[in-house]
User: Fold these one by one.
Assistant:
Number 1:
Amino acid sequence: MSISAKPVRGTAEWAVATVDCCLGCPHGCRYCYARYDQVERRGLVKAEDWSQGRIMEGELERVHRLYSGQVMFPAHHDIVPENLAACRSVILNLLRAGNKVLVVSKPHLHCIADLCQEFRPYREKVLFRFTITARNAAVLSFWEPLAPAYAERLACLELACAEGYSTSVSVEPMLDTADVVAMVEELQPFVTHSIWLGKMNKIGERVSGEEERLQAEIERIEKGQDDAHIQEIYRRLRHNPLIRWKESIKMVVGLEMAVEPGLDI
Ligand code: SF4
């Protein structure tokens, strides 16, 4: 990396641009950056309205240009049964403009079955990336209380793969580092593109609450992603060609940061 090159972080590692059509999300993830950004930091949504989610005015009619690289949808909400029609419409707008679209979701089977069917004419331009952060039901239901369970996310991955789409997984944040290697083994038969691994970032800033269980969970997460554990995961998975390391891990193991947005490598 040259001295002047600015390291690429966050969604820029995956896409040259992000597109959303909603404000708010019902999944209730405790580490949600979008909620922190739009409720706490920028005041775009009231705290009590966040979990309902609403379609942003004008987003469905927006005519998208052809971007210079992969476009990520969505980045600050999710695709859920309540906004499926809106999300489908925006993604189709992007595809019709010739874009390559990275569809990121903690996926609902009903939604993915619909999208797989609707996007068939554009199959080569779609990359599904499903966020699957742990297999342990107690851990998932604590951190992502209203998102689909592991079995449903796995079923979505199998379906998209069977339908001939490029498929990918994001394990960011890793909620159960002790199980990451075994989970990768279970998921990889249905992954054609990549499996991204990343730490939970800025926990103190984004996760708030005093309850005992939360404090215990934060302690468990921090311990599980300390340098020694990250080095061990790296040692065990470094030769797996599907694995990609997010910036939070690259920094620990000494890999070069991406210097160009949207490379997705
Ligand atoms: S699915 Fe994404 S946007 Fe929705 S609550 Fe979870 S982290 Fe936030």
Number 2:
Amino acid sequence: MLFDTHVNLHAEAFADDLTDVIRRAREAGVERMISICDKLDSFSRIREIVEADERMWCSVGVHPHYAKDYGSLTVDAILERAAWERVCGIGETGLDQHYGYSDLAAQIECFETHVAAAQQTGLPLIVHTREADTETGDVLERGYGAAPFPILMHCYTSGETLARRAIDLDAYFSVSGILSFKTAESVREVISIVPRDRILLETDCPYLAPVPMRGRRNEPAYLVHVCTALAQLWDVDEAEVARITTENALRLFKRVS
Ligand SMILES: [Zn+2]
């Protein structure tokens, strides 16, 4: 059994054939999925998708890209939605200076609101970080020092220093199709230092289709190729990767059964 810990099924790219996409995922052995929330305005649509499928869970949060639109975001607004038992994580949240859609101060404030929600619920914080290694490490350490909470560094492509800081906070890391890209040698090197009992798989679909599907719309069925990329990195077979990463995901996402 495979567990896709990061799918964006409410994306426009799936508007026409979501049922087929989910069927193909199941045929490929992807039996659990977490539908990720990018902004509170998307939550009711995500909830609809999750309610229609008993092997689907979701998160609640605001992506750093949208931090500027949620300047008045409160912890309560997140907690209210996280009360639903199929919400298994807080986010995705974090810092992104690559696109810089929202200024850094707004992103940090939004990120810290999510940290507080993770502290209060005990649900894992799903962290997106890009070109903000130092600031991301600082927010996580500050929050964790005040009251520990579970952390997932999703689609991790950042540096080794931040990876080590996060490992010290007992964080989990998820790998995506990027792991299969020829040019991603530095990502493979960093992922190699993460303990194997801390690694999960994700597609981040419809983005980041793995080799040999690169350039196409990504979908959860392609998680098998992410699994293959990790099997090559670890030099074990795919079944072993599926077993370890699914076990890890179920340990982290306690509301998923
Ligand atoms: Zn992300």
Number 3:
Amino acid sequence: MAGFGASVSLDDLERDPDPILAAMRREEPVCWVPELEMWFVTRWDDVADIESRPEVFTAATEPSFLARALGPNMLTSDPPEHTRVQQKFSPTFQPGGTSGDFVATRLVALADGLLEPLRDRFDVMSAYAQPLSAAALAEVLGLGDHGAAAVWRWCEGLCTDIANFTNDPEMTKLGEVAKVELGTAIRATMSNAGAVAGGIANFVAAGASEDEIINNVRLMISGGINEPRDGIGLVTWVLLARDDLRSAVAEDPRLMRRLVEEVFRVYTPVGTVTRQATVDVELAGSPIRAGDLVSGILRSVNLDEAHWDAPYEIRLDRREGSHAAFALGAHRCLGEWLGRQEVRVGVDRLFAAFPDLRLDATRPVDLHGFEFRGPRSLWVST
Ligand code: HEM
């Protein structure tokens, strides 16, 4: 199985994945990567194919770091079980549900409140994008009383445990502390469900069991804060780096929606979806064996030359249809609508508060990561 993938390292992917993924699309679109012990699937059509066949490419992988750290949840199951569980959680995140009410009534005030004390120079990621994303999800879930700092701590603890590939006991302990604290907060909100409006009360009313609620809220907190944060950082950075796009959006603010979609496509903050073959199967000529892990590379399909015209260009008038940054199949992002609003409104309020915002030239932006990619920091001056 030694081919192109033998030369690929995780360090290189985390630094700059795009040239490596472009070469794979060209030379070996379904490629075994020994360092990661999984197949990389890099073309749009092949990833759409694996996402449409959960009976062949299951999300219930064995072993699963996600299930070990969070407990079985919607992202570690396949239809029809997945559909049964997902339906109890989905309405909260639709525009007609709690998320819609939150965006209409609270999001702008939350953003403005975080911006109010900021002056002169600051890091957009830690001072604004991260607390905004944490506070927004906390409020939607009905955990707002615990504050953004606590929700962020739980997120960090859970993510540390998910990434604990070597079973380091210190990392497991951080995850356990987060799980105990979050579990106590969720149970208190559940027992008070009539009094505390929000997602958790909705999940109880929809008939979700205590375990389903706890495990899936852990999933939401581990996955629903970093991504809007990175989205806010990426869109802000693109606007600050590209005067042409900044002027276009200033002239016609309706273009902000298109810009957000193009930034999600070109930078794809969640890089991959991981599945496991249930049977021996051939994909684009490569022999995948039952039990092999298969990574659908969303970042690569969003830049696939066979699917997109001039894929690396941000074009506000694209016509090729929607991208894959929120995935393509049954596990398409539950918080997609809410996440988009957080990014759009978050960036909008930032530029409304600081119309002369500029990149801090003394601290260059460092985009990093493969599985999760975004600016590590984004220093600006007002
Ligand atoms: C705005 C940026 C976001 C991006 C780019 C993003 C991306 C994704 C992607 C690619 C998946 C598929 C993962 C897979 O199949 O392995 C996913 C699933 C998921 N996302 Fe998001 N996400 C975002 C925001 C959010 C938010 C705000 C929430 C809050 C609840 C959330 C909750 C979830 C959940 C629960 C799933 C699992 C869905 C399922 O298994 O059916 N995400 N997301």
